[in-house]
Design brief:
single chain; 201 residues; ten-stranded mixed beta sheet; 22% helix; disordered N terminus
Length: 201
Amino acid sequence: MRLPQILFLFLFLPFNLLLAQKEEWKLSKQADNISVFTRNVAQTNFKEVRSVTKMPIAASDLLELVNDYSSIQPWRYKVKEMKLLDGDPMGAHYLYFVLNLPIPLSDRDFVLQIETERKSDGRILINFDAVSDQLPAQEGKVRMNKMEGFWELKPLASNITEVTYQYLSDPAGVPAWIVNLFTVNAPFQALSGLRASVEKN
């Protein structure tokens, strides 16, 4: 195919597809056997984050811990309130969160649509995405409409699981440069706390 033909096809690619390109992951923190990566994403100034570690627990048991909403565990970073709205916690469900942000910021809330998918190779995916039609706006809270990502629980042995926690969020009204300062700390604290909970049990 000649160069002019290639350029012609490029011009007619869907515009959203061109903007959706993402940069390569960059290692931003590595400590306590936890690696945190970040990358820039087109159409937003907020960084996407991915954190990876290993935990001494079977993937199926870890799924029960991650999807246990009976109480707010310390590893759920900055979570002030959490409520199951509908569905099966081990399958498809809707979950309401309230995040406790420091003064002078108002608390943020969001509703996640969560689906758990078990792969044939033993991996478990917990996909989540913010939705806006499951709960009206709550007084005194700022609604977040951008929160998407997943947990991947990958069994390496009968009692060893590689955990990947990846997401992209917009806390609504908070400047991106401030959010990006804490982007690395939040998932690091979450995985560190989750592993501590695993080892305690």
